[in-house]
Amino acid sequence: MKNKNENSMDKIVSLCKRRGFIFPSSEIYGGFSAVYDYGPYGVELTNNIKKEWWKTMVQMREDIVGLDSAIFMNPKIWEASGHTSGFSDPLIECKKCHSRSRVDHLLEDVGVFADEKMSEEEIQEIFSENREKIKCPKCGQSDFSEARKFNLLVQANLGNFTSDWTKDPVYLRGETCQGIYVNYKNILDSTRVKIPFGIAQIGKAFRNEITARQFVFRTREFEQMEMQYFTSPEKEMEEYEKLRKERLKYYLDLGIKKENLKWHKHENLVFYAKEAYDIEYKYPFGFKELEGVHARGDYDLSQHGKFSGKDLSYLDQTTKEKYIPHIIESSVGVGRTMLAVLCDGYTEEKIGEESRTVLKISKKLSPIKIAVFPLLKNKDELVKKAKEIFNRLKISYICEFDASGNIGKRYRRQDEIGTPHCITVDFDSLEKNDVTVRDRDTMKQKRIKIEDLEDYFKDSF
Ligand code: GAP
What we know:
Blueprint (H helix, E strand, L loop, with lengths): L8 H10 L3 E3 L11 E3 L1 H20 L4 E4 L8 H5 L2 H4 L1 E6 L6 E3 H7 L10 H10 L18 E4 L2 E3 L13 E3 L4 H5 L2 H7 L6 E10 L14 E11 L4 H18 L7 E5 L9 E9 L2 E10 L3 H10 L5 E2 L6 E2 L2 E8 H12 E6 L2 E6 L10 E5 L5 H14 L5 E3 L5 H10 L4 E5 L1 H6 L1 E6 L5 E5 L3 H5 L4
Parallel strand pairs: 3-9, 19-20, 19-21
Antiparallel strand pairs: 1-2, 4-5, 4-6, 7-8, 9-10, 10-16, 11-12, 12-13, 13-16, 14-15, 17-18, 21-22, 22-23
Helix pairs in contact: 2-11
The site of glycyl-adenosine-5'-phosphate (GAP) has 18 residues, from strand 10, strand 13, strand 16 and helix 11.
C-alpha cells in the first residue's frame, strides 16, 4: 500500500474532476482563475463537513449560537477592522511574461521567511537581497518589477449607480467573522447568552488572492466556518487553551490521522493578539495552515465601538464589572477541510493482480452512504427488487442506484467516491430474501436479510 503523502496533488485533482467532486469554474469558457465549482459528490461532502462542524460548534454546545449575516456590509466595517488599510499581500510582476506572484511565496520557495506584516520597503529590501536566487515560476526568468502591497478586499458597486463607484466601493466580505462582531450586541440583547459565549457562522468569503495555488487550498471565493468566543479579559487564555484542545479533537474525530496534523505557533503576532496557533495539515505540498485558533484580545469590539460610536461593553450582572469582551477565534475553510479529508483518505491498493483507488474517509463524511445494485441489469426481477430496497433506504440516507457496467466496475466506482457500503441483489436474494452488503475498506461481504437492512445500518453514519 502506498503512503498517502506520496500521492501527488495531480491524482487528487484528477479524481475530483473524473468523479464529480470539484470542477474548474466556467470551464467551457476557458475557466476562471482560482474559483471552483463543487459537483454532485463535492456538494454532498462539503454539506457533511459543514454539518459536522455545526454539530460540534452549535448543536452540542449550550454556550454557542449560530448566525447567518449578509455578505455585503457597511464599508465602514472594513475600515474599523483594518482591512482597507492593512489586508494586503506583497505582489511582484515578472517583466518578461507579466505573471504576478506573491513575494513571500517566492521567498519561501528559496528558503527565506518574509513576514506578512512587513512594510513595502522591508519586503523590497529582503527581495533585493535574495534576487539572484529567485526565478519567475511561469517563465523561469529573474527580471521583476518593484514589490508592492496589494489589497485583498474584493470591491463591488452594490447600491452605487454612479460611473465612478470605485472611489466609494462596497466590499464582498473578506472574512465572515466581521458579521459576527457587528451582531454581538444584537445577540446579547435578543437571546439568553451570557459571557462566556460564542457565535458561529458558515458562509462565503472573497479575497483577491494574487496567485492561484494548490487547487482549492487557496481560492478567491471560498467558504469559511468561523466561531468567535466572547470572554472576560481574565478568562481569555483559559478559554483559549480549552478551544485549542477541542479543535484538534474535532479533526481526529473526523478521522484525520494524528500524524498528519500539527500545531504551528505564530512567532510574529499582530500587536493586539495574545497568542496565535494554526492547526496545520500535511497536504501533498507540505504542512500548511488548515485552521487558525487565535486569541484576539479586545481589538475587534474596541475598533467597532470606536468606528460605530456604539457602546459595545458588557456588564457582568453578578460582579457589576464592565468591560469590552475579549475574543478567541476558530476559523477554517470548507475547501481546505475537504482537501485535507480527500488527501488523508486517498488510498491506492493492490488486490492480487488488480489495483484499486479507494477513498477511506469517515463514513460521516461520505457523499453516498449506500449504493444499491442489481447483479445483472437486464434481469427485471433483480432490478425491481434492488429498486425497492433503494427506495426504502433513500428515506434515511443519501443512496445511489446503479445498474450499469459489470459489478466489479460498479464497486470500483463507489470505492473511488468513498461509499462505505454496497448492496447487491442476486438470484439468491429472490429466493432467500437477503442481499450481500460489501464493506468499502475490507471488501468483505455479508449476507443480510432485506427486512433487517435498516437495523443493520442504524448508527452507522
Ligand atoms: N477571521 C480570521 C481569518 O479569516 P485567515 O487565516 O485569513 O483568518 C482563516 O483565514 C481560514 O480560512 C484559513 O485557515 C483557511 O482555512 C481559510 N482560508 C483563508 N483564505 C483562504 C483562501 N483564499 N482559500 C481557501 N481557504 C482560505
